[in-house]
Every structure is written in C-alpha cells, then in structure tokens.
Amino acid sequence: MSKVPLRIGSEYLTVHLPRIGVRLHRDGKATREFLALVDSGSTVNVAEFHLARALGLDEPLVRQGRRVELKGLGSSKEAPSNAEGFEMPVEVELGTGLETDGLPLRFETAVYFTQAALPFPVLLGQHDFLEQFVFVQRNYAPRPEFVLDLPTKKR
C-alpha cells in the first residue's frame, strides 16, 4: 500500500491507497508489471492509452470499442472530471508481489482506455474486478490493511 498525506482542516492524516501489481495481456502481448489502484469508487476498469499501444492496439482499433463518458476522474486541469474511454477486452494478471493463495492470477475483463491522465496507469473498479472478490480496506486501527480474497474462501 502507498501512503498519501491528506489534509483535512489544519491536520494531516495518512491515507493508505490499495495498490496491486498487475500486467495486462491481449493476443499474446503483455505490458510490463506496474502498480494499479484498486478504486472502489470506480464503476469500471480504466487504463491510460499508452498501455493499449503496449498491447499492440493502435488508436483507430481502440476507438472501435464501445465509447463511454468517464466521469469523476479528477477536478483539476491536469485531470479533467470527464473524459472518454473505449472498451476493449483484455486479461489482467495479478502481480507476484501479492500473497495469491487461492486468488485467480489471470482473468478476462473489460478495460476502458482513455487519453486522460490518471493517478495510476490503471484503476481497477467495481464491474469485472472488485465484484469478483471480497475487498477489505482499513486505514486505521488496529492497523492499515488491504485484502483481496475469493468470496468462497473463509476468512
């Protein structure tokens, strides 16, 4: 987990962001492993456009995917609050830096590629990602924690 200082009033709190190492795969090509943000506030999975290129997908091909308006990506000029994304099926491989006992290491999902600047190269959202897992995030006592588990696995 990464730590980000968050200012509330005159006090600073530390917010622990749930990150996970992933690779994207499509048609025999794969990206390098990188950190993705597990974003429980995102409805869908969103990726920066350069990752589509790394998978051999050029812009005209990606633009043939279903177009959606992505809302709430940010609120500054650097990260506009609305952007377009194009749906493409890819496989997501969970990175080796995790305790992956019982987790599927690789699965197919829809990812929306966007030209918008994101806080991480990929945001893993509810549909086609988090809905497959039990997700626990705790930023405070007794200790910060980030858990992804299969729903059938007993905790």
Describe this protein with a few key phrases.
mainly beta, 155 residues, two-stranded antiparallel ribbon, 2 helices, six-stranded mixed β-barrel, Cathepsin D, subunit A, domain 1
How does this model look, in words?
By secondary structure, the chain is mostly beta strands. The protein has a single domain, classed as Acid Proteases (Cathepsin D, subunit A, domain 1), CATH 2.40.70.10. Helices cover 6% and strands 46% of the residues. It has a 6-stranded mixed β-barrel. The chain has a two-stranded antiparallel ribbon with strand order 1-2. A hairpin with a 2-residue loop joins β1 and β2. The longest helix is centred in the first third of the chain and has 6 residues. The protein is globular and about 50 Å long. About 3% of the residues have low confidence.
Number of strands: 12
Which fold name fills CATH's third level, the topology?
Answer: Cathepsin D, subunit A, domain 1
Q: What number of structural domains do the residues give?
A: 1
Q: Reading side by side through the largest sheet, how are the strands ordered?
A: 3-5-10-6-9-8
Query: Order of helices and strands, N to C?
Result: EEEEEEHHEEEEEE
Radius of gyration: 16 Å
**What's the CATH C level?**
Mainly Beta
In helices, the fraction of residues equals: under 10%
Number of DSSP helices? Answer: 2
